[in-house]
Amino acid sequence: MKKTKQILEYSAIFEPAKEGGYNVLFPSFPGCITFGRNFEEAKLKAKEILELWLEELAHQGKKVPVYKHRPIIDDVCVNLPRNAKIVCAQ
Known about the structure:
alpha+beta
């Protein structure tokens, strides 16, 4: 009997890197990170590294986490106090 492939989705965080490009990390897999020189390359490398990560988990006989709900990431607008000092976060 032929085994069918399963397709899963995982949340990835794409953070602009100081030197340009994007760092990519996966909240479900601490330590699984990659980098791309632009967003398109970062997405491609994210897929590659995550597939390798899952392959290694399977090779070690470990369980692959699956979540029923995905985190929601959104911006929250706030009123800044008048005396607040603003620093550009990197």
